[in-house]
Amino acid sequence: MKEKLGLVMEGGAMRGLFTAGVIDVFMENGIQTDGVIGVSAGATFGCNYLTKQKGRPLRYCVRFAKDPRFCSVPSLLLTGDMFGAEFCYHTIPETLDPIDNEAFRSSGVPFYIVCTDVNTGKAVYHQCKDMLSREELEWVRAGASMPLCSQIVKAGRYEMLDGGIADSIPLKFFEYKGYARNIVVLTQPADYVKEPNSMMPLVRQVYRKYPNLIRAMERRHIIYNRQTAYAAEAEQAGRAFVIRPPEKLPVSHLTHDPDLMREVYAAGRQTAMSRLPALQEFIGIASR
């Protein structure tokens, strides 16, 4: 029986354009998986892997980089969201740069989004089946809603924020779901070690009604470093194929510079192309 092959994509806000470059190379070279899971930008950009819309994340990020409705301090002050909720998660995908929802739905590939339940501090994994349903897009928004930069999002029976708080690299979850081998796309280099969050004093004040969320954020660096170590172990054991930038990407979470966006996307493409022969060999093993 064929082993299921999964694709796991880390977030990182504008670092996610590295992932956008990687998945475009996948599309150009017929790299197909049996399931996909994305965290934060890994979901907002990664969904284009199933719609087969090469270049779309870079295109709209560059187009709207300077638009205050897309990402700005005024948006944060006026709406509570640095990335404009209505503009980013409805106006763009519905009208300005439409997502191919029919292609997404007809792909037949399960697509999961990771969010963090602010009441429990634990990860919530949601299978998204429609990329233009307002309810489903709220799940996408919740999974990418960075603390201190976003309002808490209600979807289903949950109140949620960024999935990276609770599960930045959901490789174990996908293995549990039956994906025996996985391609893991990270947005930090191999030598990256996450440090404790310097904004914790403000986090404790802003989210004082959510003690479990605070505890999750206090421990996030510990969990993250364990997850990167686990991904490396899985790669060494032959269960995972990890693609990561060779060095720190030259963008912050909230970069507005189109040239830097293009540079990060190009880095993703270049890295994926350099690893393509090894990846094709890995997939050959996975499909026996």
Summary of the model, kept short:
45% of the residues lie in helices and 14% in strands. With 288 residues, it is an alpha/beta fold.
Characterise the protein shown here.
With 288 residues, the chain is of the alpha/beta class. It has 13 helices and 8 strands. The chain has helices at 16-28, 41-44, 48-51, 56-63, 73-79, 85-96, 101-106, 134-143, 171-176, 200-206, 211-218, 220-236, 258-286, and strands at 5-9, 35-39, 111-117, 123-127, 153-155, 158-162, 181-185, 240-243. The radius of gyration is 18 Å and the shape is globular. The termini are close together. The model has no long low-confidence stretch (mean pLDDT 95).
Helix residue percentage: 40-55%
Shape descriptor: globular
SSE order, one letter for each helix or strand? EHEHHHHHHEEHEEHEHHHEH
Give the N-terminus to C-terminus distance in angstroms: 8 Å
How does the helix and strand content classify structurally?
Answer: alpha/beta
Low-confidence stretches: none
Total number of β-strand segments? 8
Report the β-strand fraction as a percent range.
5-15%
What can be said about the biggest beta sheet?
A: 8 strands, mixed
Using the CA coordinates, give the radius of gyration. Answer: 18 Å
Oligomer, anyone?
single chain
What number is the mean pLDDT? 95
Number of helices: 13
Question: What attributes characterize this protein structure?
Answer:
288 residues, alpha/beta, 8-stranded mixed beta sheet, globular
